[in-house]
Amino acid sequence: MREHQLFDHLSQVTLKTQCKGCYACCVDLVVEIEEEDEMLWEEMGIYREIIKQTELEAFFPTPSSRILKQREDGTCVFLVNGLCSIQDFKPKVCRDFEYLGKNCKLLRERFGFEPDSLEFL
Where are the domains positioned within the chain? Predict the structure, then answer.
């Protein structure tokens, strides 16, 4: 799949979780890429396109760790119009993030939301 085709597809992917889309968890957080993520992307034939949006991180937690890039404002490069453009095959760290769990509530508070409210950014 060519890069422009991948991102055309990504823009059509819909949010399928119970997350209400405040995207507080997609700002200023380090998302480490795990081997499981790389294997999934390889199987789907999208590894090269996604890995271009990562960078080597020398200090987290091993010298060869890859993390998702962030924009200058701290948002994840895959956040498009408030939604995850790789929702169907996002990194394990993101898949495991518990909606309205302890970390979700802390991040929502950081952005000025009531921890259990369904407000959007």
Answer: 3-110
